[in-house]
Amino acid sequence: MKLQRDWITPITMGAFGLLAVTGALMFFHLDSGLNETAHEWLSWVLLGGVALHAAVNWMSVKRHLAGWRGRTAVGVFALLLAASFVSVGGKKEPPFVAPMRALADAPLPVLAQVAKTSPDELRARLQKAGVSVRDDADTVRSLVGGDTRKQMRVLSQVVGS
Fold this sequence. Notes:
Mean pLDDT: 92
Oligomer: single chain
Strand content: under 5%
Distance between the termini: 57 Å
Number of helices: 9
Number of domains: 2
Structural class: mainly alpha
Helix content: over 70%
Shape: elongated
């Protein structure tokens, strides 16, 4: 099969457009639905399109890289890529973890207020979620342990009901 610009270039342009828009939406925390998934998975289409585009236009690529401007541009971006792997400071947790931790550490009557329900209804929801309550001083953390994912699962079942 002969590589043809008339379909390789539009694929590259379309994939770039999709990634540019979804990337900007993600940067400004405006993404929704499948934006992030599309950005992650369809980036492979852009990589393939760029590789094919470079193959079809190999003489132009070589000409651009022969001059100092082309080599400098590629070199700068290679350095930026290398710098992106350097860890600066400790890894921060996602912003939702602190409020979730506060809910997991709240005594059940306080959690019931947050859930806009009665303590008895909250106990029933916890029981339905498979969590046995001993007394009102219990917290979701004391009932299910330190596993953050398990705490989130239980909280979403009892607060989101």
